[in-house]
Write a structure and sequence with these properties.
Length: 252
């Protein structure tokens, strides 16, 4: 990872978390010139859905690594650390080791803010929950003066309603047990251009694009409602809320 201090660090579990979970936040910051880094714990090799056409299951890790590279370019990420913990087995992996590796990256990159998964894992994914806990621990282990602000990705009621509505419209069984949080205190609102840019990054993750997301393209208003809003929870920060430019408070 290239070292450029004072940026933003995302700690995620799977290739595509960075885009589907926080693509707008990343774009908002990279477009403002804030160096933004990503740690991704797994190659996402458990996410086989028969896509893209002609792909073979055993090639999925390689496919997803390439998709992540493309999405990282679309989001203008400064650096990506792709680790090879087992997809679906992060919680059973060496907790101490992963926490230390996150801590090391924080020590090298010196981000002003770290964004990770919260204890709900967005929709309860055990890898998300585990990575979120390791990230909290790594940030907590930094010495006071070096400790970055910490935010969690969250789902609030409007976002949960978007998913329910999107599934209903596209005739999809709702398989996402989203847990709407009431204590969301930071919401990034994307403009139409930013939503388009986020969609371009989403399109890079071809192996993971569910049919309902493709069907949703016919519903621009709903897309804006769902993809154009990203809720976060401030866990610890010295500068709460968003700046005038819509960046996290740390980036004035
Ligand atoms: Zn994930």
């Amino acid at each position: 990872m290239e070292e450029q201090k004072g940026g933003l660090l995302l700690v995620m579990a799977h290739p595509d978390d960075e885009t589907f979970g926080a693509g707008g936040l990343v774009l908002r910051h990279t477009r403002a010139g804030v160096p933004t880094y990503l740690i991704c714990a797994t190659y996402g090799e458990a996410g086989w859905s028969g896509k893209p056409p002609g792909a073979k299951k055993e090639d999925l890790p390689e496919i997803r690594a390439r998709e992540l590279e493309e999405a990282a370019a679309a989001l203008a990420l400064t650096g990506v650390e792709l680790w090879d913990y087992p997809d679906g087995g992060v919680a059973q992996s060496d907790r101490k080791q992963i926490t230390e590796r996150i801590w090391e990256q924080i020590s090298r990159v010196h981000p002003r803010a770290v964004v990770g998964w919260g204890p709900d894992g967005g929709y309860g994914h055990p890898d998300h929950i585990a990575m979120g806990a390791y990230t909290d621990a790594a940030v907590g282990a930094m010495t006071e003066g070096d400790r970055p602000a910490l935010y969690h990705i969250a789902v609030d009621r409007p976002l949960a309603e978007f998913y329910a509505e999107a599934m209903r419209l596209t005739g999809t069984a709702n398989g996402l047990p989203l847990q709407a949080q009431d204590n969301v205190d930071v919401v990034i609102e994307l403009d139409a251009d930013e939503v388009m840019m986020k969609l371009r990054a989403m399109d890079c993750h071809r192996s993971q694009l569910e049919d309902w997301r493709i069907a949703l393209r016919d519903h621009p208003r709903l897309m804006q409602q769902g993809y154009g809003r990203e809720p976060y929870i401030t866990v610890s920060s010295r500068a709460t809320g968003l700046t005038e430019k819509g960046l996290l408070g740390e980036f004035v």
